[in-house]
Amino acid sequence: QQAVIGVTGLGVMGRNLARNFARHGYAVAVHNRTEAKTKALMEEFGHEGEFLPAGSAEAFVASLARPRKMVIMVQAGPATDAVIEEFAPLLEPGDILVDGGNAHYLDTRRRETALRDRGIHFVGAGISGGEQGALEGPSIMPGGTREAYESLGPILEDIAAKVDGVPCCAYVGPDGAGHFVKMVHNGIEYADMQLIAESYDLLRTGANLTPPQIAEVFRTWNTGRLDSYLIDITAEVLSHTDHATGEPFVDVVVDQAEQKGTGRWTVQTALDLGVPVTGIAEAVFARSISGHADMRAVARGLSGPSGAELGSSFADDVEQALYASKVVAYAQGFNQIQAGSAEYGWDIDLGAMATIWRGGCIIRARFLDRIRAAYETDARAATLLSDANFAAEVGAAQDSWRDVVVAATRAGIPVPGFASALSYYDALRAERLPAALVQGQRDFFGAHTYRRVDREGVYHTQWELPDRPEIRTDA
Ligand code: 6PG
Q1: Whole-complex ipTM
Q2: Residues in domain 6-phosphogluconate dehydrogenase C-terminal (predicted)?
């Protein structure tokens, strides 16, 4: 008896992924560095399917049918390198080694190159959906060679979430493409969570609703165009009462948001690629601000308003602002995928990415089907905001959007996500940007030159001379 696929690293994600394979009828080899976890898996879930437990790396590899397919589910970083070091010498040319962790895409590129030299297909696969997704159907974003996907893809598609019968798994592109897309997924996740959190704050501090009342508002929103996993779980969290104190759960949690790094990577990468992902950046910075207890402690007494008495229709305005800001955040994230794809020659199908995010992953939402449709209309759209449907919706939402940002500003409620999304929208719409003045300043102090609107060429004004003559520098 040989296994169709194997999983090493039986933490919650690895264990649930292995169970998912088994539940779909695949004989699955399971291995963990410390054997206790393998035994625990067999005891608790061994009856769910055909598991082949292995006590050593050698036994694990020997139990896999050729070409071998094995998934590494350990912590990103050095732990992943250590596991690759351990297993690669046991594999043969043509075997497929999958990294299902949240690896940095540059690590994946490095590992893919090194393993390709040894004839091994290294597949960096983004897997989203948390514990439940891994077990019941995640969204899977596999990179690597097409050849590897031919034999691995059908198995991954089988265990992935399905929406309208379509699997939430598709080939992304060579080497680091899968982990790049997963990284941007997480960046968008940060932005989406921040926008939802700002909506909550506006309803709480601006309209004086209670957490359970706000949960109801979110539940209503979840029946419309904002229908998504994140809105759904937000309602759950807001309606929960703390067992110990009887207070709303959200009031007993320390208001400092943590992060494991994928949002930060997204922004760092976007800066290098020159992609303005303002929504994701604001979300990362908002978490950072929340964590600066020292600064917040000394600044708490600074003067300014702290709340308002906004009327009941305010919630509708917030819904519009949230939707418009969300469109902006997703548009920015998809631009980053477009830029990464161009930079590394990955040829990523943006519509396919929207398709596999419709289910299984943390940002799963009804809305993603509209993004899929937008890219179906124009696969190379410069921005999703110019898609006729999104343009009409955001256009219709903008009065409320502006009102909400104004009301928040007057009330002293921080809305970095809403405000920066609106500024991004206005910057893209603008006939002229003050960037022209910035160019003038740069030329003044550093002779950094500028281009003119009326003729070709690169120019410099000799600011130090009395009549400030202009010279062409590229002639
Ligand atoms: C997913 C999630 C997951 C990650 C969370 C937490 O797609 O299933 O993105 O990969 O654990 O995003 O990330 P932070 O700790 O950085 O908030």
Answers
A1: 0.96
A2: 178-464
